[in-house]
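subagent[fold] <- orchestrator: predict structure for attached chain, return tokens only, no commentary.
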Amino acid sequence: MKGIIFNAVEEAVVDLHGPDVWDELLDRAGVDGAYTALGTYPDEDLFGLVGAASALTGDTAANVQRVLGRHCLPVMVRQVEELVQPDMDVFDFLASVHDIIHVEVRKLSPDANPPSIASERIDEETLQLRYRSDRGLPALAEGLILGSGDHFGQPVEIEIRNDLADDGETVFRVRKVTG
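subagent[fold] -> orchestrator:
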């Protein structure tokens, strides 16, 4: 997993709970926490940090991932600001992740293995995302989607539609919250 993910998680934890909690998570997870944005690190480091946060808070690992995803999104967007057009809305951004942002990630880091995300506009208020990752982490993806709505000032709600999913895939039906 790329270091930018760990940098975003660290910033989210420190912003939400302070540096002492980040240090405690590192200790509990048994990882050193020296992550550089372009470095590649074991996926197990993230799973360990999520598990440590879950044990510390009493929350489920899935909820920890959602919270982290939501708060990591702004950090990750800062890393690709030049790819985010000023006239984009939340759906434009989400639709661009796989074909624009992940392509640029692979140019910078050929060893990167980002998830596959296919988007389909259902109507003006609804976007469907098909998420597939060797790592799993659909709850983290859900948090990133919610964070996208926050970032673009267009709150969204998500319905997980696994009845529409192929094996190993998560389907998110994302709706803009209006009114």
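orchestrator: received. Logging for downstream: The mean pLDDT is 90. The longest helix spans residues 61-79.
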